[in-house]
Design goal:
The complex is a heterodimer of chains A (124) and B (107).
Chain A: E1 3-6, E2 10-12, E3 18-25, E4 33-39, E5 45-52, E6 58-60, E7 68-73, E8 78-83, E9 92-100, E10 110-114, E11 118-122
Parallel strand pairs in A: 2-11
Antiparallel strand pairs in A: 1-3, 3-8, 4-5, 4-9, 5-6, 7-8, 9-10, 9-11
Chain B: E1 4-7, E2 10-13, E3 19-25, E4 33-38, E5 45-49, E6 53-54, E7 62-67, E8 70-75, E9 85-91, E10 96-98, E11 102-106
The chains are: A mainly beta (124), B mainly beta (107).
């Protein structure tokens, strides 16, 4: 079945970087956008950005521009989200989610399949 | 940025109740709204897309309506499996914004 399997929990110090992976199975990675969403403890959901897995083109929320990089390794059907210069308030659960409808549609995506999330804790 | 406001933030209800959650957009967003269900430790579950379209596999007791700036998610007869947090989401070329969530808890 279609699923997204994310990497395990991370603990990082302020100023460090974290790279979260999201392995797609049950479908072809490059047929869909991949989105990244985070959830700070006790708060709601926040869209970080997305990647066109076919072209590699990315779009990031203003809040994260300059600090986030989204990439893919299509040979292993995996998407990545790297967040740099971590701060205490980056402590959150980070989710990957498949965008629907599939490519070549470039806009108006909702998310039809989600990973279970990766907990990133920023602590000194 | 378009802001999405959900109400109520918490809702207490009993099994069998009809439940309605509202989501308001700060600007007209047409039909570009989705609803998701979140349970602890599980992946988020898409319920409704394009305001009123039921995602495949989602029970028919869930329904969505609205357009423009006001939208609703209705659960016609609340089941034990429905106690969860529900989020609306606006999606467009330039913005994907979530509402603050509505926790549906047992009364």
């Amino acid at each position: 079945q279609v699923q997204l399997v994310q990497s395990g929990a991370e603990v990082k110090k302020p100023g460090a970087s974290v790279k979260v992976s999201c392995k797609a199975s049950g479908y072809t990675l490059t047929d869909y956008f991949m989105h990244w969403v985070r959830q700070v403890p006790g708060q709601g959901l926040e869209w970080m950005g997305s990647i066109n897995t076919r072209s590699g083109g990315t779009g990031y929320a203003h809040k994260f521009q300059g600090r986030v990089t989204m990439t893919t390794d299509t040979s292993i059907s995996t998407a990545y989200m790297e967040l740099n210069t971590l701060k205490f308030d980056d402590t959150a659960v980070y989710y990957c989610a498949r965008g629907w409808p599939p490519l070549p549609t470039l806009t108006n995506h909702y998310m039809d399949v989600w990973g279970k999330g990766t907990t990133v804790t920023v602590s000194s | 940025d378009i802001q999405m406001t959900q109400s109520p933030s918490t809702l207490s209800a009993s099994v069998g109740d009809r439940v309605t959650i509202t989501c308001r957009a700060s600007l007209s967003i047409g039909p570009w709204l989705a609803w998701y269900q979140q349970k602890p430790g599980e992946a988020l579950n898409l319920l409704i897309y394009k305001a009123s379209n039921l995602q495949s596999g989602v029970p028919s007791r869930f329904s969505g309506s609205g357009s423009g700036t006001e939208f609703t998610l209705t659960i016609s007869s609340l089941q034990p499996d429905d106690f969860a947090i529900y989020y609306c989401q606006h999606y467009s070329s330039y913005s994907l914004t979530f509402g603050g969530g509505t926790k549906v808890e047992i009364e």
